[in-house]
Write a structure and sequence with these properties.
140 residues; alpha+beta; 5-stranded antiparallel sheet; 3 helices; membrane; transmembrane helix; Pilin-like; methylation; transmembrane
């Protein structure tokens, strides 16, 4: 018996019905998994905004303490430096372009410092999400 005749007799493989059933099962599994994956991605993005806000806080705190540690610095000179050099005006809005690792679309507003150059309040906004820090408490 030659090879062609043997192949014709051995009709092993999947039928069209079996293939359709497998495709339907895969479709059902994807329909179940995709919404969960999308929710997981959304939660991760929300967490990233909180991480960025805390990173901005640490950067601002570091800049303020660094300036306060200079010879002859007072809290008023530190606040003036923040407004003049870091913010660029008389407002308390910080351009995030000066903060390392923070998206340029983010803004930091309402920076308040204690008498020892500790950041006591700030508002971080990235996209439609706003994070507020007041007296060491973070709120969304």
């Amino acid at each position: 018996m030659n090879l062609v005749e043997r192949l014709k007799k051995d009709k092993k493989g999947f039928t069209l019905i079996e293939m359709i059933v497998v495709i339907v099962i895969i479709g059902i599994l994807l329909a179940i998994l995709i919404p969960g994956i999308v929710r997981y991605i959304d939660k991760a993005k929300e967490k990233q905004v909180m991480v960025n806000a805390r990173s901005a806080y640490l950067d601002i705190q570091s800049l303020a303490l660094e300036e306060y540690g200079k010879q002859g610095a007072t809290i008023d000179t530190v606040k003036g430096k923040i407004k003049r050099d870091w913010i660029g005006g008389d407002t308390t809005d910080l351009n995030s372009g000066t903060l390392e690792g923070i998206p340029t679309s983010a803004t930091v507003k309402g920076i308040e410092l204690s008498d020892k150059a500790r950041v006591t309040a700030m508002t971080y906004t990235e996209g439609s999400k706003t994070i507020v820090m007041e007296n060491g408490t973070w709120k969304e």
